[in-house]
Model the fold of this input.
Amino acid sequence: MQKPLGYLAPGLSVRGRLSGAGDLTIDGRLEGELDVSGEVIVGERGVIVAPVRAGAVVVAGDLKGEVHARGAVAVRDGGRILGDVRAQRVSIDDGGALHGGVEMDFELPAELDGLLA
Amino acid sequence: MNRPSVIPEGMRLLGDVEGEGDLAVLGAIEGDVRVDGALVVETSGVIKGQVQARTIVVRGVLVGDGTAADTVRVEPGARMVGDARAPRVSIVDGALFRGRVEMSSDAAPRVGRSVPRRRTAAGELATPSAAGQLVSPTSAGADSSPSAAGQLVSPTSAGAVTSPGTASSVGAHPAPVAARRGPPAPNVPVLRRTEARRAER
Done:
């Protein structure tokens, strides 16, 4: 049997610090702090008001708070992030919204070194 | 489709859960839980806090009171420390339980049975009212809305109500008093050991 994935259904509200291993899909509401190793999916009806640390984040609903992902952060059509995003990759689909800073860690071509110095 | 909410194994919540639908707990929650559906604490699940639901099933660990509108069921392998309050409470053989059991019949009257007098959870005798209905002392103050006041009110909020009926509710008593009032302890070796351990502290 497949292990059940973390899920907050519409109408369910969690207040506090949720942390640990595994993935989590949120169609309900989470307020506080979120720190998980896996993927966090904010569904269309989902609302997160919390700083988020995760392996990856997909937002189709509302996310208010700083986001820090080791992998990718994706804002889907209808999704909204209010806060700074730090991740390896960040993508914003057409129809998605992001208000805040985006920080992706990458190197510029070595040839630029002389120009920027 | 009503997909139940899940706190998965390996995840931990320090805080409260409240809302609609069912909730399965395979991880850990330290805080209070209140849902209007079924709450299942699975084998790997741990809750430390007060829980309220329509039905509560404990297969893992629950440290705190469980109050259900319908049933509380403590299954084999489960460990529960706290009071179980519901119209129907079952502790299945093999479950470990320490606390009080309160089955209030007010919310779910047993039809077809005529019992002139019965003991309430508080150990006081309930007397039949004029209408022939059983009125227990604990819920006398809240007769008009048994489901709201008799069932789902937490001990803390019940204490805040000024009505004398609710104030005398068993949940408001400190634990030691309640323990003395209860039936004699069953002769279970595990319990004796636990009691001894408790006495040492």
Notes: Chain A has a mean pLDDT of 91.
